[in-house]
């Protein structure tokens, strides 16, 4: 028997091994963009939905919308039609326009909270994790913050400030920081036990550089995943705050506001609540899908090719 | 007599594991409980023992990775356990480390060049970036890795190659002593031989002293000049290699040696199988710490802790048997192998 | 007929970078009551081989082909239910890590008893009695007390003894031990090896011992099979293999291990190193798998993969240049 890949004949007297069959079909490993999408479908779906929503938020004014605050008493509570795609509300405002503009509030709140809570939590977590004597103090403070339900905390903070999108972001950020801080502290505590950190200490690296060069970069992966979940939860909290009238002021259309206004008419005109609710669900789903995908991608155990 | 490079005097490291701030009786792990030894320039001293005996803690204490409970770590006549930040920095340059696990010893996000440049920059061993590169290239040559590999990340290397990078990082500081904490234990047989040979070559070329911490007695015998055997936080025997392997004077060392499986089928030899497990270092036995497992223990061992005593051939051992008349001491017969 | 006959076993895995041919055409047999050691370095496929014999490889991403005949039945053709009846009963397994292989929330007695109740239909009381008996067999002091304890209350050596007790509870005909002493300290390892040798005489089970430690092999095995890059490269009775290794890889492995007592003979030799790395198993290998690291490899080796050949009585090796004695047919 000769090897198919070789044309020469083997020297006489040699015992040649029989080539073995492939028992798994050869699949060309897909590389590049297509391979990435196939391996991480949740990132693809979540990312695509999120991109569409960002597009909607940015170009809300050019997508066939009218002024979302324009009141028209003669056209109140219209059902969805060719003219009013999502219908109108009790003040005759175009729901399609309101829901599209509402995307802006939700995404702004979600992204801003994710970013600010990450930065704040990262700083506190790094300090608590690396400066041992501060740890007890800082983490007990974080624990007491966490013992208050985040919505209650946000309501309380909103009560003492003026209702504005900025204050909503601030309130939710304060409520989310302890969660991030706790995560980062845990990661830092495990990272500082890593031999490469000891190796860097032995190599004469001073503490600030240890944190910046060896600890911080390795916390970014779990942080990114956590940030997406925070983004999702911040959008929900914003909607809840607006729904109970403690969030985004009523003159700015937000999904929570729209749902709050449609609440009274829920049984007769359910579409007023339905459209903003559907958008909120899809947005949070997109963000969470993206987070799950990122977690799989950034987890070194899952990405090992074995 | 010349001054030893490293002296460790009555080193103790106790960890608190319970009690403290909110009451409760504090209890301690006596990880290292009074250990003294010296390492001469260019010498290899091996620290052997089973897991939990405190050998790694000694290594980390020598590296000053934490504050010790009591005792002294003296480098070249200078005390390091209470050194100021600046002295500590020069000390760190002279004492480097290679750890066991080549996968977690390198920052996964740093390129090899940056990993090697870190100690060079920290200790001010190069004036320009070009000089750093030159040194990095020399280090790669020294440990037998291709120069192009400096642009790669740690995960692109095999275990043995990573261990070479770890050795290169240790050498970058131009140290006089390298602590090898189980540096070859995690490697495969054929790669282990490569790294052992590399360490020996480097030691000869650069005149390095090694503190070789290991549980693998065959590798230790191959590598070392002197051996120190630890059991439950204490040294039980310290001797030059040939002394220790030919005629161990402590029953624990004997049991340890006889327990190593030999790659010789049918080899006939005396097998001492120790009963039971190593006691907890939270509550070490009174008297001799080994008496609970020692086949020769007698009354004195249960009450009085033996001290390290010297015998001819610079052979130190801590065992009451060695106070007995020669005829009654089972420890004087050479080990049948 | 041998107790276990493995023929042309292939275990491949689908990975993002291609198909990993972890085990590629391995054949061997184990006689009743015999101890066969499978030796090799990490990634040589020795553990995958043992796992695939019990079909413990997840499919996908893995795929097993070939034949694994146990007492005449091809295990790869059995239904899942028939396979479950064999695992832990006719064939049982001991793993490397005794802590993670035991369930932390069940008592030791429950865990030993479980296999007995499952396979032999014993009631709770009988199972517990048998558990005490098994703990006595593996040399655990105060077994009546220990059966009621949880794994975390035992030391590493004790846990490995419990693992052995579980494995032997149903009187298996074959015991697969995957690095059973690697995680243990040397004095505890000596205890466990001693126990395994002793039990072998008393219980009479055949053992397949997977290990990378040549010392352990020399102490317990009767026959040795050396694996490299997913292939079997050599097999011989243990003494023959250590005194007369034929394959350059086996020779390299034996030369790379320092021997205890080497300093006494005064020789301070350099360890033999095998240069280079194990080849990637996701890419096709032309010729001999070891050619890239072999000191005596020629173009012939790099072109033509050697088949396993009888080099001496009961001694096979896959090398074109290995010394061959005249073998009477």
UniProtKB/TrEMBL annotation, chain A:
<keyword id="KW-1003">Cell membrane</keyword>
<feature type="transmembrane region" description="Helical">
    <location>
        <begin position="105"/>
        <end position="131"/>
    </location>
</feature>
<dbReference type="Pfam" id="PF00528">
    <property type="entry name" value="BPD_transp_1"/>
</dbReference>
<feature type="domain" description="ABC transmembrane type-1">
    <location>
        <begin position="107"/>
        <end position="291"/>
    </location>
</feature>
<dbReference type="InterPro" id="IPR050366">
    <property type="entry name" value="BP-dependent_transpt_permease"/>
</dbReference>
<keyword id="KW-0812">Transmembrane</keyword>
<feature type="transmembrane region" description="Helical">
    <location>
        <begin position="227"/>
        <end position="248"/>
    </location>
</feature>
<comment type="similarity">
    <text>Belongs to the binding-protein-dependent transport system permease family.</text>
</comment>
<dbReference type="InterPro" id="IPR000515">
    <property type="entry name" value="MetI-like"/>
</dbReference>
<feature type="transmembrane region" description="Helical">
    <location>
        <begin position="151"/>
        <end position="175"/>
    </location>
</feature>
<feature type="transmembrane region" description="Helical">
    <location>
        <begin position="43"/>
        <end position="66"/>
    </location>
</feature>
<dbReference type="GO" id="GO:0055085">
    <property type="term" value="P:transmembrane transport"/>
</dbReference>
<protein>
    <submittedName>
        <fullName>ABC transporter permease</fullName>
    </submittedName>
</protein>
<dbReference type="GO" id="GO:0005886">
    <property type="term" value="C:plasma membrane"/>
</dbReference>
<keyword id="KW-0813">Transport</keyword>
Automatic annotation (TrEMBL), chain B:
<dbReference type="InterPro" id="IPR050319">
    <property type="entry name" value="ABC_transp_ATP-bind"/>
</dbReference>
<keyword id="KW-0547">Nucleotide-binding</keyword>
<keyword id="KW-0067">ATP-binding</keyword>
<dbReference type="Pfam" id="PF00005">
    <property type="entry name" value="ABC_tran"/>
</dbReference>
<comment type="similarity">
    <text>Belongs to the ABC transporter superfamily.</text>
</comment>
<dbReference type="GO" id="GO:0016887">
    <property type="term" value="F:ATP hydrolysis activity"/>
</dbReference>
<protein>
    <submittedName>
        <fullName>ABC transporter ATP-binding protein</fullName>
    </submittedName>
</protein>
<dbReference type="GO" id="GO:0055085">
    <property type="term" value="P:transmembrane transport"/>
</dbReference>
<dbReference type="GO" id="GO:0015833">
    <property type="term" value="P:peptide transport"/>
</dbReference>
<dbReference type="InterPro" id="IPR003439">
    <property type="entry name" value="ABC_transporter-like_ATP-bd"/>
</dbReference>
<dbReference type="InterPro" id="IPR003593">
    <property type="entry name" value="AAA+_ATPase"/>
</dbReference>
<dbReference type="Pfam" id="PF08352">
    <property type="entry name" value="oligo_HPY"/>
</dbReference>
<dbReference type="InterPro" id="IPR013563">
    <property type="entry name" value="Oligopep_ABC_C"/>
</dbReference>
<feature type="domain" description="ABC transporter">
    <location>
        <begin position="6"/>
        <end position="257"/>
    </location>
</feature>
<dbReference type="GO" id="GO:0005886">
    <property type="term" value="C:plasma membrane"/>
</dbReference>
Automatic annotation (TrEMBL), chain C:
<protein>
    <submittedName>
        <fullName>ABC transporter ATP-binding protein</fullName>
    </submittedName>
</protein>
<dbReference type="Pfam" id="PF08352">
    <property type="entry name" value="oligo_HPY"/>
</dbReference>
<dbReference type="GO" id="GO:0005524">
    <property type="term" value="F:ATP binding"/>
</dbReference>
<dbReference type="GO" id="GO:0005886">
    <property type="term" value="C:plasma membrane"/>
</dbReference>
<dbReference type="Pfam" id="PF00005">
    <property type="entry name" value="ABC_tran"/>
</dbReference>
<keyword id="KW-0067">ATP-binding</keyword>
<keyword id="KW-0472">Membrane</keyword>
<dbReference type="GO" id="GO:0055085">
    <property type="term" value="P:transmembrane transport"/>
</dbReference>
<keyword id="KW-0547">Nucleotide-binding</keyword>
<dbReference type="InterPro" id="IPR027417">
    <property type="entry name" value="P-loop_NTPase"/>
</dbReference>
<dbReference type="InterPro" id="IPR050388">
    <property type="entry name" value="ABC_Ni/Peptide_Import"/>
</dbReference>
<dbReference type="InterPro" id="IPR003593">
    <property type="entry name" value="AAA+_ATPase"/>
</dbReference>
<keyword id="KW-0813">Transport</keyword>
<dbReference type="GO" id="GO:0015833">
    <property type="term" value="P:peptide transport"/>
</dbReference>
<dbReference type="GO" id="GO:0016887">
    <property type="term" value="F:ATP hydrolysis activity"/>
</dbReference>
